[in-house]
Amino acid sequence: MTVDLSQFIASIEHFVGEAGPAFRAAASLDELELVRAKYLGKNQGHLKSLSAELGQLERQHRAAAGAKFNEARVLLEQLYEERKAALRPVAAAAPILDRTMPARESWRGSLHPVSLVVDEICGIFRELGFTIALGPEAETAWYNFGALNFPPDHPAMELHDTLYLEGGGLLRTHTSPVQVRTLQQYAPPIRILAPGNVYRRDFFDSTHSPVFAQIEGLAVDEGISFSDLKATLTHFAHRFYGGSRRTRFGPSYFPFTEPSAEMHVEVDLGDGRGLRWIEIMGCGLVHPAVLEAAGVDGERYTGWAFGMGPARIAQSRHGISDCRVLFDSDVRFLRQFAE
Ligand code: DAH
Description:
Blueprint: H1 5-25, H2 29-40, H3 46-55, H4 62-93, H5 113-127, E1 131-132, E2 138-140, H6 141-144, E3 169-171, H7 177-185, E4 190-199, E5 211-221, H8 226-241, E6 247-252, E7 257-268, E8 275-286, H9 288-293, E9 302-308, H10 310-318, H11 331-334
Parallel strand pairs: 1-4
Antiparallel strand pairs: 2-3, 4-5, 5-9, 6-7, 7-8, 8-9
Helix pairs in contact: 1-2, 1-3, 1-4, 2-4, 3-4, 5-10
This protein binds 3,4-dihydroxyphenylalanine.
3,4-dihydroxyphenylalanine is lined by residues 174, 176, 216, 254, 257, 282-284, 305-307.
């Protein structure tokens, strides 16, 4: 049986005339698939039977008929894709609710290891009658240097280069200005701890950062001596590191203390070098010039003070050899300290 060309073209047109509206009318993706199977399906679709008819055309008509056939197929496939795209958002918007899915693990966060150390240190000194005092991070040169007995252009200031602000202010290079502010405001006896951030013109490397935390301590009263300093700080180190930890004091220099010392503890930093001495703070008896600058009678009162870096102390406690991880905010590191 042969098929006539005009008859074939008529059935193609009939086919498109029926299938086109059917694709456009499909109301859901499921319905669209049924329409596709009916018209374009590889097994029983109408297109399949048309392609069979194509084979029965006379040879000289096949090129023209084939072109018509392909045109119809491309058109309908395009209508199918368009309809599918139009229906898809509706399907995607439908919520997929799987009540059997396990809950997502949630981490509510925790205090930073340096904050934990600051809190712990403040807690130990609170037991000894110290209270917390705070001061501004934007300071005047007088509080940061002058009142603390730094002579103008003293080489000690080289270690304290910082950012200078318009109007003569600066970012404080240590928490020691809080000593002066406290002494101006309250009469002795005074016992305070002043935690806070300080700034220096330093590179950011494994042992330095241009901003870091400090804790200042100050005790001023009548009859305070160097043995009070040693006893209190040794007690602190044993509370913090454990009673068997070895500590020692060595001589040092600060313009605002006389005599000045540094305290060392023996720790293992976890860098394979084993136990070694590290400095954990500077300290000393408050220089009478500091008391006088703050309006306190330096004949009647004496005091001792210290300044330490809690980041350093957190490193010594946890065996952290590079301080930069304390600034990275990497949750893989931080969550190890979550309580
Ligand atoms: N302010 C000093 C610094 O940042 C640390 C310090 C040393 C503070 C001795 C003190 C002290 O109160 O007595 O380098």
